[in-house]
Structure formats: structure tokens, C-alpha cells
């Protein structure tokens, strides 16, 4: 075993013996350090350096610190660094970078302060490496102040790190100040600012900045597409994706991931299929995330058969893969098939997470599998080690309501360790309407009005419950309360996918450019149905 571990170093030394006459010892050690894949390799390389007094060479020691960082031996690197005399800023930068990359910011700041005590002036790399590991705003501001004091804040690479640091801390306004103060802006910092806006959900600001960029690349387009998808604006994401293609920009795996997410939200099967075909045709790297996105897109776009086909074609699957296909089967009403898939997951020794069990409970809910749901719910922690979340309770309450067990649903709601949210009370209200329980419907609406005061659907459901029970007076009174409170009914809408474009039509809204022609065709169809006695 030991001989196999040493073999890379031994073989390298043998290969270099013949080259000693022409190749320097420094080059040999640099090559050795590049081939350190374990702690034993690092210790051997260090011994080789120490015996020849080369552990005091700044270049070699810098590469040695990198090898220690890659093999988890940072404490050993710090020990060797401490005994080094005559350190330069390059060597300090290397250790700061290694510590920041391994989330050891306190140690990185300590090393930085030591460099200042030694009167070594930091350069732009020092500030960049410090900022890369910052996750707390206070520390980031401190580094920013240091950059200003040394006149490094206007360096474009430091600017990129500052923008990313502030946006990761949720301070996009401060990021924009940094961006605006930059005297020179390259494409990287433009992309960082656009991505920063998208990260905090200010996608329209990102779009405004995107439109005035002096140049764009694939990263620019992908950031905006992903931003719209994450902000639940899939139509805009698809529109930007189409515009990117018109501009002749070739998408990569990350772009496709964002576009597939938008397709899944819209149910845009035609575009999703085109993306799948493009991936195959251009031999894009099929990452696990890309496979998962394809499964999700097909399931949410109505083609569960194709989702299963993609799933079965995969060689490697993770918990997200299994969860996505289980949720897809549940969405299409295949409850028993979803539970069978969960059994396959357990047999494959993939540990489910809390989201997996939400998908399982959802499958039970949509198919009235009350006993199975009770078993999974009661075994969340005992068998799977999962603390029940409000979503698990929500699935159970929804299932009990659908099954007509309204009192059981209310009892579970009252004893859960969470404050019921709008989704849970909405499930109770829907069940009350389904089974004509006026009192429970009133209770649900009382809570929903507090949680969602402007949601017209809650008032409409209660009015319908009264109407179903023959209580027309209270039904009309509910509508009046809704009007007096200024709650407006949300207009209905429908989407049609045509030539890989998704068109949305909103009731009473004629803003779509093809609205007039669409209405003309609908009128013709209506007259045709009247003449031929076809009724819907």
C-alpha cells in the first residue's frame, strides 16, 4: 500500500535523474509539488526540500502552500510559513488565498495583519483574495476600507470582488456605488453587477443595466435568463433566451439549465423539447443538474412518459433526481407509481431528504392514500431522521381535507408546532367548499383575510360555499364585503405555445399585439358552433 502511495514521487524522481544536468532542482521540486495528491506526498516533498535548504525559497514555498491547501494540510503550511525568514508579499498572498478558499477568514485576516506589521504593502491580489472568502458585511467593509487606504479600490479586479461581496451580503446598493465609481469597467465587472441584481431579485434593474452594456458575452445573457427564471418570470426568461439565439450567441450547459427552469414554470413543452434536441445535437456535457432539469421540465410540461425515459437513461442519480421524478409522478396523479419509485430509491440506498418526503406525501394526497400517508408522516423522524416541516403538515392536512376527514384535518392543524400559513388555510377552505362545511369555511376565511387581505379567491370560495348551501344572502354579503374592502378579482389568463414562443392572454386585456385577430377568430368559431348546434 505504502509503495503505491509513494509511486508518483518515486517515478518522478527516477525520470528526473537523467535530467539533472540540464534541469534545475527548482524545476524538479515544482514538478513534484504539482503531483502531490495526498498528505504523504506533501510530507515527502517537504522533506526533499528541507534536506536541500529549499524550504526558504519564496517561489517553492508558495507552491508548497498550494499543495497543502489541496490536500487539507493548511495547518502544516502555516507551521512551515511561520519558520520562513524574509517573506515577501507574494508569499503572504498565497497563504491568504489558501485560507480564504478554505473558509478560514479569521486566519486569513490574521496573516494579512502580520504582513502589515512587517510593513509589506498589500497589492490588488491581497485584497482580492481577502474578499473571496468574506461572508459577513462588517468584515467586507473593513477590507473595502483597507483597499481605499492603499488606493486599490479602483482596480477593476478588486472592484469585481467588492461587487460580488456586497451582493452576496444583500447590499446591492453598495455594490452599485462601487460599480459607478470605477474609472475603468471591463466585461467582468458589468457581468458581476448584472448577476448581483439578479441574485437579490431586482431583475428589472439587471435588465436596464444589461441593455446599456457596451458588449455582452454568454455570461451576460445567462445571468439575465437565470434571473428572470428565479424571479418567477419565465415568459421574460424565454424571450431573452430567444433574443440571445437571434444574436448568434451559442448557449452552454448553464444557459440551458436556466432556460429549462423557465420552460418548466411555463409548461413550454415545445421549447423544452427543442432544448433537449440541441443538447444532444451539439454534444453538450450532460451534467447531473441538466438531467434533473430535463426531468422536471418534461414532468411539469405534461409529458411524464418522456420524463421517465430521461430518468431511466441516467447512469448516475442523486437524491434530487429521485425526488424530481417522484414529484412528477405525483403531479400526474400516479400515486402508487410514485411510491414504487420511492421504494426503488430506498433499494438503491439513496437517503431521502425532507423534500423527497414532501413529494411522497403529495403523491398520497393526490390519490387519497390516507393510510400510506399516515405511515410516512409518523415515520418522518423515527425512520428517516427528518424533523417534520410545515410543508409535511400541509400535505397531511390537504390529504385529510380531500378525503373528507375535516375534523381530523382541523385537529392536526391545531396541534402542529407551526403557525398555519395561507397554503394550509387555503387547503381547509377548498375542502370546506368540496364538502359544504360552512362553519369551517368561515373559520378558514377569517385567517386567510389576515394573511392574504387582497386575495379575491378566498372571498369567492366562501361566497360559493354559502351559495352551495342555499344561503344566498350571506353569499351576496360576502361579495359586497369584498367590493367595500377594495379587493379586486384577479383576471384569469391562459398561455399558448406557438413556434417556441409562449403567448399569454389575460381576460379583459387587449394589450397582446394579436388580440384583435384572436377575438375575430373566436367570434367566427362561436358563430360556427351556434349554427352547427355545438355547445361546450
UniProtKB/TrEMBL annotation:
Molecular function via GO: RNA binding
Annotated InterPro entries: E_motif, PPR_At4g14850-like_plant, PPR_rpt, TPR-like_helical_dom_sf
Segments annotated as PPR repeats: 88-122, 186-220, 221-251, 287-321, 353-388
GO terms (BP aspect): RNA modification
A Pfam family assignment: E_motif
Superkingdom of the source species: Eukaryota
Keywords: Repeat
Coiled-coil boundaries: none
Name recorded for this polypeptide: Pentacotripeptide-repeat region of PRORP domain-containing protein
Organism this protein belongs to: Mikania micrantha (bitter vine)
